[in-house]
Amino acid sequence: MPQLNPAPWFAILLFSWFVLLVVIPPKVMAHTFPNEPTTQSTEKPKTESWNWPWHLASSTNL
Fold this sequence. Notes:
Layout: H1 6-29, H2 53-60
Main location: mitochondrion
GO molecular function, one term: proton transmembrane transporter activity
Signal peptide: 1-30
């Protein structure tokens, strides 16, 4: 049975880990962000609730 011969599969395993650990990380780390992250303000935004006039009208027709 050829799948029991570890020689080609072990070489493929080692080469795959070599690619994942040596070749890929520099390529991923070379990416730059388009903007620098900034801290968010601690002040809460002032929001208003929305009016849904049709919601009350439809619930009274039940």
